[in-house]
């Protein structure tokens, strides 16, 4: 298989670094790799396939010769630079929200709607991480008719970026230091954890606020889940509602899904369908206390599904608990899988 000239935009960020790792793990046919980031990161060196590569500044001339550009640098940079990459001849797989709801841009989860890739006009959008993880758990059940989806997400701090990981670490360290002082020195001064970028302390706390609040009381993150789900499923009539919560977990999102189907679907049948689905692993044995947790999902490509049970308040209701590594399947892995589909890489599907 011929190699490709690939660029990773936002290479020094959490998702960008994960993209590099996955490109290497999956032996993506990279002939030449260009690492692009802001001017602050230009000149840094990063290891890929045993070679030290220098990070270059993202400019309007950075895409000469690039065939595939994986973007994870934020919506504003994507809006500015993705069209320039396309003009230079690249196909862009964009991880931001910039193009997701553009009717001309495919919004793709390769296990669900890979056929949409064929209609791209230079840009393919990666869905929101929560949307991907949630849909991986319910799409295999689509034959029973998806009527209503109620989503509550419990999202790890790494979904907000590297700064969020450091903020949680710092606050946990502050609390631990305070506890040691209290135990050894009898210090009894009150501790007020300081929030720098989150609106409130995230350590030992939950923040039911991800992204900006909208006039209807929902946040942008919740609206993304609604709109993107309908677009990926190609079903404007499916009822979707969401509450998204930031939790003090470093990595892997957890999603509680209350699903109502048009036809009756038993928990056993749901488990059977999910076991056959690509990219999904059923982990569901309540008697042995086996159920998905962030610690189990971290570093895994598959999404874990458990706590599968009837919702006894409606005729065709089902509960599921889905956990997925949002830096992998929720972002970097999904983008690389799209690139694999683009180049027809064996094993991509």
What's the β-strand tally? 13
What global shape is seen? globular
CATH class of the largest domain: Alpha Beta
Overall residue-averaged pLDDT value: 95
Q: What proportion of the residues is helical, as a percent range?
A: 25-40%
Number of separate structural domains: 3
Query: How far is the first residue's CA from the last residue's CA?
Result: 16 Å
At CATH level 2, the architecture of the largest domain is: 2-Layer Sandwich
Q: Which residues sit in consecutive blocks of at least 5 with pLDDT less than 50?
A: none
Structural class: alpha/beta
| Major sheet description | 7 strands, mixed
Query: Any idea what the radius of gyration is?
Result: 21 Å
Overview of this protein structure:
The longest helix has 24 residues, at 162-185. With 349 residues, this protein is α/β, with parallel strands linked by helices. The protein is globular, with a radius of gyration of 21 Å. It contains 8 helices and 13 strands. The strands form 2 sheets. Strands 3-4-2-1-5-6-7 form a 7-stranded mixed β-sheet, sandwiched between helices. The chain has a 6-stranded mixed β-sheet with strand order 9-8-10-13-12-11.
Question: What's the short version?
Answer:
With 349 residues, the protein is of the alpha/beta class. The protein has eight helices and 13 strands.
Helix and strand topology:
Elements: E1 4-9, H1 14-25, E2 30-37, E3 45-48, E4 51-57, E5 68-71, H2 75-87, E6 91-94, E7 123-125, H3 129-138, E8 146-155, H4 162-185, H5 220-233, E9 239-246, E10 253-261, H6 267-275, E11 280-282, H7 294-297, E12 303-311, E13 317-324, H8 328-343
Parallel strand pairs: 1-2, 1-5, 2-4, 5-6, 6-7, 8-9, 11-12
Antiparallel strand pairs: 3-4, 8-10, 10-13, 12-13
Helix pairs in contact: 1-8
């Amino acid at each position: 298989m011929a190699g490709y000239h690939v660029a990773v935009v936002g290479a020094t960020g959490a998702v960008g670094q994960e993209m590099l790792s996955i490109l290497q793990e999956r032996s993506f046919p990279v002939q030449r790799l260009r690492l692009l980031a802001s001017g602050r990161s230009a000149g840094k060196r990063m290891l890929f396939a045993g070679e030290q590569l220098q990070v270059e500044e993202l400019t309007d001339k950075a895409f000469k010769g690039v065939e595939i550009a994986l973007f994870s640098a934020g919506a504003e940079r994507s809006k500015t630079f993705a069209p320039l990459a396309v003009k230079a001849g690249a196909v862009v797989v964009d991880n931001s929200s910039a193009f997701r709801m553009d009717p001309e841009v495919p919004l793709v989860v390769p296990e669900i709607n890979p056929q949409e890739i064929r209609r791209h006009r230079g840009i393919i959008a990666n869905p929101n991480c929560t949307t991907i993880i949630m849909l991986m758990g319910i799409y295999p059940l689509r034959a029973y008719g998806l009527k209503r989806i109620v989503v509550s997400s419990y999202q790890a701090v790494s979904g907000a970026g590297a700064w969020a990981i450091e903020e949680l670490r710092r606050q946990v360290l502050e609390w631990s230091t305070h506890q040691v002082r209290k135990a050894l020195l009898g210090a009894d001064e009150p501790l007020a954890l300081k929030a720098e970028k989150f609106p409130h302390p995230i350590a030992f706390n939950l923040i039911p606020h991800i992204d900006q609040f909208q006039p209807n009381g929902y946040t942008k993150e919740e609206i993304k889940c609604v709109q993107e789900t309908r677009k990926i499923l190609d079903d404007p009539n499916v009822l979707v509602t969401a509450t998204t919560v930031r939790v003090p977990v470093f990595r892997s999102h957890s999603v509680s899904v209350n699903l109502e189907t048009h036809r009756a679907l038993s928990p056993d049948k749901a488990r059977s369908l999910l076991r056959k689905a690509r990219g999904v692993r059923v982990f569901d044995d309540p008697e042995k206390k086996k159920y998905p947790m962030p610690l189990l999902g971290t570093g895994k490509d598959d999404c874990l599904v458990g706590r599968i049970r009837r919702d006894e308040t409606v005729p065709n209701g089902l509960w599921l608990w889905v956990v997925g590594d949002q830096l992998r399947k929720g972002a970097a892995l999904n983008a690389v899988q799209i690139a694999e589909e683009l180049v027809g890489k064996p094993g991509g599907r």
